[in-house]
Amino acid sequence: MFDLGRYCAICGAAHPSVHAKLSHNIGMVVMRRVEWTEGQMCQGCLVRTYLKHTGLNLVLGWWGMISFIMTIVFLVGNTVHLVTGLIALRSASARQARAERQREAERAQTDAPAALERFKHTIRMRLKRGEDVEVIAAEIADAANVPHEKAHAFVVEQRAAVAEPSASA
Ligand SMILES: [Zn+2]
Question: Pick from 10, 94, 99, 117: CA 20 to 30 A from residue 58's CA?
Fold first, then answer.
């Protein structure tokens, strides 16, 4: 229903935006006029534009037979645009956050060996002291910000190295 954009046409900011059209009626007893704002809007501009047109509708809309009806039509229509627009923006930002978490997780996977390498000495010292692999792995995973399986595999690797007499750190 809505075209999601990356820019707001109202304030020009690089925010997620939805296409919306918000209108108000100006009743002049026998004549009437309609004014509207249409375009890609970020959340802030959507709310501000909605409030502006709603206010003008409420003050200037009613004056005339057809105007009375059109004012109601616009009040309802604007609210529908506001609500559906906000829902679309919210799900877009949820998708964006999910994608960001995904990218971060992938980065953590890729950077795991380098991040763990920095803890090599500490891990070997703790292994020599006879500390539990699980305990070390859990702490190192947190400290290096890498997935637990990666940290665990690395600690096991280091244990093998420590166990071999030729491979002392
Ligand atoms: Zn904006």
Answer: 10
